[in-house]
Amino acid sequence: MSLILLIEQVLNGLQFGIMLFLMAAGLTLIFGVMGLINLAHGSLYMIGAFCAAAVAGLTGSFVLALIAALAGAAIAGALVELVVIRRLYDKDHLDQVLATFALILIFSEGTRWIFGSFPLFLDVPDYLSGPITLPGGIEYPLYRLTLIIVGLLVALGLYLLISKTRLGVQIRAGENDREMIAALGIDIAKLYTIVFALGAALAGLAGALVGAIQSVQVGMGEPVLILAFVVIVIGGIGSIKGALIGAILVGLTDTLGGIFLPEVMKLFFDPSTATSIGSSVASMAIYILMAAILILRPSGLFGARA
Amino acid sequence: MIRETYVNALAVAVLLAVPAWAVIADEPFTITLMTRAAIFAVAAIGLNIALGIGGLVSFGHAVFFGLGGYAMGILAHHAQTYTALAEWPILIEGTKSMPVIWLLAVVLSALAALVIGILSLRTSGVYFIMITLAFGQMFFFFAISWAEYGGEDGLSIYVRNGFPGLNTLVPIHFYGLCLTVLFLVLVFAWRLVNSPFGLALNAARQAPIRVETVGLDPVRIKLVAFVISGAITGLAGAMFADLNRFVSPTMFSWQTSGEIMIFIILGGVGRLFGPVVGALVFVALEHWLGGLSDYWHIYLGLLLLLTVLFGRGGLIGMVSGRRAVHD
Asked: What CATH number does domain B2-320 carry, 2.60.34, 1.20.120, 1.10.3470, 1.10.600?
């Protein structure tokens, strides 16, 4: 097990974590401001990926594809908010879960109806493909490195948006006391739509970016959605900082666990048993991490005390 | 309310009359569909105890459904391959006997519910929903990576397990067995709801602080309810695996958890017959809409969405006009 392999795996984990962050940030923002648990967030991720794949297929431009993903997911998010989601704010969590579960069924089957069951492919553009040599002579795929950088830039942008702009002030105020900001003359319905569309756009961006290294298919959003839930439970629901740290923790645990747990098990068992036990434990590692964190801190690392 | 009683009576009539017709008309597939509905109803009655009465929105009941399924799959697999399940410290062999398998499924699910409940009940609200969902995924991925028992492909059992005195290969025999279990579980749920424990559980959902001030521990009450709930859903899982003679990680998937929830919401949350009506309607929709269009999940989604947005109290609530028990 060389150092170079270790660094590569850490970078892979970081890249996975950063993409989870894009999903988790939207979820946690929507929960923090509107108190809504949105299972359909994975569908917005899928819509972003499909918009990107369709536009890339028509124009051949990766940049246009990303813009399409952002716009498509944001528009879908705004529409869903206007038609369905705003009726759910006053309902209990059970109704929110079921209604957004219904949205998943509608979106997934609708997409399958339009695009068919076969996966689409979104290619990494030439100028981002191939490896890059990092300091220390480590070869690493340029595209994955770009994902890490884009994700970190988005995180920085979100931080600036929330801490420095007028919209950010309204979002923070909405998290603390929504009656009060409505009383101060802020159009709370418009704010909710904007926040939902923003979260949707982030999910769509993540879908398009990841879609280029995996296949674009129906149902791609739900595994990521559940991981994003784990992330925000670990980080504390409503906290963007928690989402970032939780996402990186989950990304690293998942990636490194998959590589190193079988190796660790080889110290105790014969190789074939070790591989099977190691991979079984690795597939559960993030859930074990989550359970451990919840035992220590029931409302997550950065969550407000329940 | 009188009209709810009529709806319940109608559900019982459907459960009895449709298979009777199917036997006369020689339509074994209809009996299989009804068996499926009866088993789903048992699973949903289990969840309804936690969700409808205890207010515990568990998005991970597939864990218990799947554990029941795998209890059947693993025991029957060892029985049909004549291998021992464990040779040390004591010799454990597989079995093809339904009562033994069902008992094990119940015990196993109850234990899992105890552990998951202790951990999950440290949280509440959205955290509870998400942590139960995550436990479901944990079991799902474990089942996928467990190559010894089929991994992603699951396990097939060639001959349906036996029940003393019945030929379970005859559809109507197996249906009768499942229907008996359903009625027993219904009676149990009815007795439970009206027992002092049921009242305390109801109170623990509505006003946990008041429950605490009269000297009861709401978390413990909810934990007991969660264990009972998980055990019943586990039993349903074993029956479902018996019906299909097949188990796969799909039984652990979060969609399964969602479907068990759908049965309850379609029928009516917190109502005794809600899960039964919901399961019957779901299986009917699955069969008819699935025949009309490959994309029947769109219609299911729309129906579910409309039920949640406008039809509080599910189908029973709409028909009987009483406000939802759940609040």
From this structure: 1.10.3470
